[in-house]
User: Fold these one by one.
Assistant:
Number 1:
Amino acid sequence: MMNIVVCVKAVPDPKMADKIKIDPVTKTLVRENIDLVINPLDRNALEAALQLKKTNGAHITVLSMGPPMAGNIVKECLALGADTGILLSDRAFGGADAYATAYTLAKGIEKIGAFDVVFCGMASSDGATEWVGPQVATFLRIPVVTMVHELIEDEGADWLVRAAWEEGYRKVAIRLPALFTVARDLNQPKNLSFSGILKARKKEITSWSIDDLGVSPDSVGCKGSPTIVGDFGTLETGRSVEFLEGTAEEKAERLVQILTDSGAIA
Amino acid sequence: MTTEIKNHNGAVWVLAEQKNASLQAVSLQLTGKARLLADQLEVPMEVVLFGDNLEASAKTLIAAGADTVYLAESAELAGYQPVIYADIFVNLARTKQPDIVLMGSTCMGRELAPILAARLETGLTAHCINLVLGENNILNQQIPAYGGLISILCPARKPQMSTVAGGVFPTPELNQSRSGTIKRLEVNIAQDPRVRVVEIVKEERYEQSLDAAEFIVAGGAGTGDLEGWNTLKELSRVLNAGLGCTRPVVDEGWAELETMIGQSGKMVSPKFYLGAGLSGELQHMVGIKGAQLMIAINNDPKSPVFEQVDYGVVEDCSTFIPLLLEKLKESGLRHTSS
Ligand SMILES: Cc1cc2nc3c(=O)[nH]c(=O)nc-3n(C[C@H](O)[C@H](O)[C@H](O)COP(=O)(O)OP(=O)(O)OC[C@H]3O[C@@H](n4cnc5c(N)ncnc54)[C@H](O)[C@@H]3O)c2cc1C
């Protein structure tokens, strides 16, 4: 039976993300009671694993690095059908950039043991670097395909996938064990079911600290991150707005006039 | 593990890209930018290029500012082969020890850059919208975040690596009389890579390409629903304008990711921009460069989008877009490209 690891991230609910601002003086994030949810693309990653489990049978381990609160989203993944949930949580992991995050996740996967496939969402909604998946693969020394849109052949050890490419797509042949980062149109993630929630109640999630991973404090979190945040500044656009006045009708007419005068339409 | 690249005055590098026998615009733009950085640092500017039939591109890169162009040339490398590219690049970088490596945020760059950075044990910054040398000549890699701009630095490791989208930096003028060196790298295809790109397929599924569009209509979450989005789409057709969007529109599945404008999407430089139902978040707005005329429609008079445009219409999209559509249809006016 196949062993699949799905990496998930708890992110501030993207629907409320515009409420996060940075304090220009202290350079710290100001978050006002924003719920943590599963990063949307990680739901596609989990769904890919669930579909493989349904057709061929598989054991799915969900792995997340985050604060203790992120345990809730790991639980949610169990309710969606994953078998085992692991949270990498330790103060020492805090402040990690993509590189240190990927390193820590890779160490977590090594500790899980044998695996055939790792799925990650192609990007997180709050960081959007797209680096974590391919860097996890690099630390694990396994091949990777990013931005996967379709699993064309997903049986045996030699897979064929369709992945993003400018003005079209690329077909990539890859040998397992391998890591895939998935795009939104790979599948349609299912919603939580009541029976899933009931079944997941009995499942426990495991929490691993830095000691469990046996890594040096210098290689994780803030200390293990090659990048740091420097100055914060504002952007000036140099434009000043003129609001169109009058009824909606008059505004529409004026807008057509502005577009005509500027040569945008003729 | 690997040896860390020491702190020294290494070159500024660009990992360039050739597709369908032509050098990518972003590679030239980065070469132009890298030339400026190299001049400031008083170090050489070098380009690495993979593919087949690269001679013409190498000459163009020299004309754009490269002192040296390293070519990994072979028929097997014509498309994109991640493992072979990465092996060759990492070996070269370990030997030559560049200070800075710039790459395009193309599909190749987005996959390869993190692999290279992890193998070189260094930092990488995504979707930079500006690169300037700061204190101690450390590269300030600027990205929009949380309503402002932050600089990401990689102060203690080398090379400092960034990805940048096409259109962020201008295309440099070519000086055909510049001289530079072309160096061919040894390409060893003997290994059996565990991952192989077997085919790159071109699809004709794009409406008006945003890259070339002089007039762009962009919509955001405030278009409300699929119906509202489709009304905006019709507006763009009637105007003969390109149609772009913000991230929530992609998340809702109303439009393709390829049409998302902004830091992690497309950089565009239209003459005319009309944004409807979007809040003016910097991650979107930095994607629009140098427009002559910018107009926003938003039902919230306090929306930050109005601080970034020339004309503002405070109206609800669900009523105003159909009205505007009607007026335009009546007038028969549309955009004709110059
Ligand atoms: C690292 C990172 C990278 C990102 N990259 C990008 C990127 O490349 N491109 C991108 O677009 N986003 C990007 N984002 C997301 C970005 O931060 C914003 O969340 C997004 O641009 C907001 O889209 P919006 O303006 O459509 O939605 P919202 O911010 O929700 O704004 C909707 C606007 O519509 C108005 N509105 C609501 N109803 C109506 C109505 N009926 N009529 C008129 N107006 C109405 C509201 O007043 C509001 O101003 C990125 C985010 C991160 C963290």
Number 2:
Amino acid sequence: MKETNENKQPVLEIKSLFKSFGDNHVLNGFNLKLYKGENLVVMGKSGSGKSVMIKCLVGLMAADSGTIKIQDFDITSLGQKELDVLRTEIGFLFQGSALYDSMTVRENLNFPLRRHKNKVDGNKNTEELVLEALDNVGLASAIDLMPAELSGGMKRRVALARALILKPKIILYDEPTTGLDPITAKEIIQLMRDVQKKYNTSSLIITHDVDCARVISNRMILLVDGIDYAHGTFEELSKSEDPKIKAFFKN
Amino acid sequence: MELSKAIYARSKRFFSEIGDMAYFAMRFFREVVSAPFEWKELIRQCYRVGNRSIILVGVTGFILGLVFTLQSRPTLLEFGAVSWMPSMVSLSIVREIGPVIFALICAGRIGSGIGAELGSMKVTEQIDAMEVSGTNPFKYLVVTRILATTLMLPLLILMGDAIALFGSALIENLKGEVSYLLYFNKVFDALQYSDIIPATIKSFFFGFAIGLVGCYKGYNCAKGTVGVGEASNAAVVYTSMLLFVIDFIAVFVTDIFVEL
Ligand SMILES: Nc1ncnc2c1ncn2[C@@H]1O[C@H](COP(=O)(O)OP(=O)(O)OP(=O)(O)O)[C@@H](O)[C@H]1O
Ligand SMILES: [Mg+2]
């Protein structure tokens, strides 16, 4: 826990989040605070409930109990319209990219702009915004391709461009590097850092990739047994003697 | 004992599924009337429904007309009632056979397509992605598709009916030397608004059923590729069953009105 954050107001806060599927108790009181401008990494084993946590966060799944606040709005108390507006402040990179496979890359990027274009920049037209977003991820040439024609790494970049097109203040990454080769993974991590610098966003990064965590994290939370088992910087946690924490860092 | 338990469990699942579907339909009616409207997507979906099934319905209709007329000729000849052919064929096709057959074909073609499409979108989290990008996926995907099938099915069925009658006229023209003009004169003499209107109303319900079940199955698709296949398959099976139920109710209701 960083002292410097103590008196700051978190942009995103999860308090004692519970979620079960029948007898499968996935989250048992998970806590998390994300402060402005930081990269917070949440690590956990496969199946530990990282994706469930992040889906509760954006209201894709209803939590059993607990409070979730985004920029001081309690998302469970918001109506559909307010929630939609709040969601434009959040970029979400899905674990499997989740590009719309019946649309071209251009249409994929246009999609978030259809309803919320004025949120970004009233002067630029959609085409300019789409090109700018694709340029940021170095894929301007792929604008007219279908997702099926892209490689896994390219898909991830397009998905990243789509997640960023509304210039969100908070970005949620669900395993941004999983399933990519180490070089492509590095490129994606570099992109994430560029974005952070360029737009001064706050990011919540979910991963079980230790390299990714080392490079990008300002602070980390380990998700074990459905709770926020340990908080700290990468150095602090990697030196820990706790066997449950050690298990994450031994290679 | 075991058997009754199994029957109980099955029927419970069946009725809870019906309940879920009714809830889904209610959500459709709630969201269809509230802004924003996805006009462009609606028109695109209408086009897709028509584009996918127009040839299928046309060919089936034509063959239906041919076969139906060829089959009926000997019987009518026997009674010396061949001149009744146009009225008999047109009444049975427009009232009953046409709507049911074309709707079944569309269930196979469009219903399964919708089930598979929405199912794979669900499984690959595309529907979730829409939701977080601030577009209501129910409106964008489900409402447009159900509206499209509801609006397009009556048109497709009317077209299929017309082609079937043309096929029938062709046989009569070749075999019985009835001119097309005479044939269609007799057809329009026989057909009343009281035949066409109930059939068209029925077609709207058929279209609604195809869209509703396809969307319901796809939208609630289970994870995995198996889930997508099941969604697509179940969409066709359930829709076909539902079509017959609707048909039965429609015939029943029409009958009451005719009695009055
Ligand atoms: N829709 C669902 N219905 C039922 N159980 C679910 C559902 N989604 C997730 N689960 C269960 O919740 C648990 C956590 O899943 P989750 O997808 O969050 O794992 P994860 O930490 O993201 O793993 P990975 O690193 O493999 O993505 C798993 O046991 C899974 O079976
Ligand atoms: Mg996951």
